[in-house]
Write a structure and sequence with these properties.
461 residues; mainly beta; 4 helices
């Protein structure tokens, strides 16, 4: 990583973290996706009807895909990795990077053992943030021609419930913990014991793409201690946007003291709506309406109360007029904007997709791009990414089975792209390879990673 902020490098990095996506049509015509039932029709951005498809390398029938698409499967839970460790379970958020002629995936594992447990860390105890915690990341080197594994190893160990995160333009993955458990003992809603960890959790951690083994973990405490989900970096400014997977929850941004050096600290803020303190986005929203957003400071991003109060950071922002969302999850940069979704947002609690467009440092515009009115159209959107070809968004679902990867076009139409046939589990970690030719996605349970390729030019992705 460079030792200074290089704006050109940031802008080059935008090719990894987003794409150009003309959304004027989506804002104007987002209602189409809820009014029309023909999302599977050719010509609406769709690639055609889905059909059960066997993997290229193992012959298993794991996904239903449109005609012409192929895929491989790898990194199944329990499979031996190059470092001798078994592949951890609970595959979740993920990003792809180019390095040495290969694709490097850095992949989260959303393991939450909830109670500190000896021997559960996925990597060596000496390099584990908390040896009593079972989450972390693995790095998987993939051959871009065969779409199969060349090398894989634990790259972050001893963290907890690493759900999502995001890539940075300077060549790293930020892995986010979706829990604030720590040393304090407690019980969950079922009466089971929790806590008793050696470290507090609820932080972000950085994993360089160049790492060749397990990194020494450093919690980025200035980025906040809350129920993290995902991040996205604006490559023009180095500002990091963060989502909170809780209801109620907020959208945050981190202004680093030194761009590309997150460990050097910075300022955490929460989004608010100008002249509408405490604005509630969860219901009663209108697609296409633009709201003027501002930002309020979080005075204490790492409050001691966070270990027993999921909302300790959110409450600070709310007290200053911050806006409320319902379970913010996926987050991605593209076309000068941050795209994110509220998994349970909307009048039907089926999900919302939002766009935030910065207008200088002080604020910007918040727009509801899409709100689902039917589970047949979209149900509980989770991880998402912007297509590098400028056509639309790929969105994973985390709802009752069946779960799909859906495509959302720039004209506001939704279509099915892939269906999980292997289990009732969510799909996660959707992202394109740097050259745009391969779409990677995870099935969380049983854990596995899939690499999909085919005639992308035929549709909106």
């Amino acid at each position: 990583m460079s030792s200074h902020f290089d704006r050109r490098a940031f802008l080059r990095g935008a090719a990894l973290t987003g794409g150009v996506w003309g959304l004027q049509g989506l804002v104007a015509r987002g209602v189409l996706a809820t009014e029309e039932k023909g999302r599977r029709e050719a010509g609406a951005g769709s690639y055609g009807p889905l059909r059960p498809t066997k993997t290229k390398n193992t012959g298993e029938e794991i996904l239903a895909l449109p005609a012409g698409f192929q895929y491989t499967v790898f990194s199944k839970t329990g499979a031996a990795m190059s470092d001798g460790k078994p592949t951890p379970r609970m595959h979740d958020g993920m990003a792809a990077f180019a390095m040495d002629g290969k694709i490097r995936l850095i992949r989260n594992h959303e393991v939450n053992n909830r109670l500190g447990k000896e021997g559960i860390a996925i990597g060596d105890a000496a390099k584990s943030y908390d040896p009593l915690a079972g989450g972390g990341t693995t790095t998987v080197v993939v051959d871009p021609q065969t779409r199969e594994v060349v090398q894989d190893f634990v790259s972050l160990s001893g963290t907890l419930q690493n759900c999502a995160g995001g890539s940075t333009p300077w060549g790293s993955w930020i892995s986010c913990e979706e829990t604030v458990l720590g040393a304090t003992p407690g019980t969950d809603r079922n009466g089971a014991a929790t806590g008793r960890f050696r470290q507090g959790h609820g932080y972000c951690f950085e994993v360089p793409v160049s790492a060749t083994g397990t990194v020494q973990p450093v919690p980025l405490k200035a980025m906040g201690r809350f129920v993290h989900e995902a991040i996205a970096v604006d490559p023009a400014t180095g500002i990091v946007y963060e989502t909170e997977d809780f209801n109620p929850g907020g959208l945050y941004r981190f202004l680093p003291n030194r761009p590309a050096r997150l460990a050097a600290g910075g300022r955490l803020q929460m989004l608010a709506i100008k002249n509408k303190p405490g604005y509630d986005t969860r219901t009663g929203q209108q697609m296409g309406r633009m709201l003027h957003a501002v930002w309020v400071d979080i005075d204490d991003p790492d409050p001691s109360a966070a270990e027993t109060d999921n909302l300790a950071v959110y409450k600070q922002g709310l007290a200053k007029g911050g806006a409320t969302f319902d379970r913010l999850e996926g987050c991605w940069y593209g076309d000068g904007s941050i795209f994110f979704d509220a998994t349970s947002g909307g009048d039907k609690k089926l999900g919302q997709i939002w766009r935030y467009t910065p207008r200088g440092q002080a604020g910007g515009l918040l727009t509801l791009l899409f709100e689902s009115q039917s589970p047949d159209v979209l149900q509980m959107p989770d991880n998402l990414c912007v297509s590098p070809r400028g056509g639309g968004l790929a969105v994973c679902e985390d709802g009752p089975a069946p779960n799909f990867v859906r495509g959302l076009t720039s004209e506001g139409r939704i279509f099915d792209f892939a269906q999980n046939l292997a289990s009732t589990s969510e799909l996660a970690g959707v992202n394109f390879s740097p050259d745009g030719q391969t779409l990677f996605v995870n099935i969380q349970t049983p854990g596995m990673t899939l690499a999909i390729w085919g005639p992308w030019e035929r549709g909106a992705l």
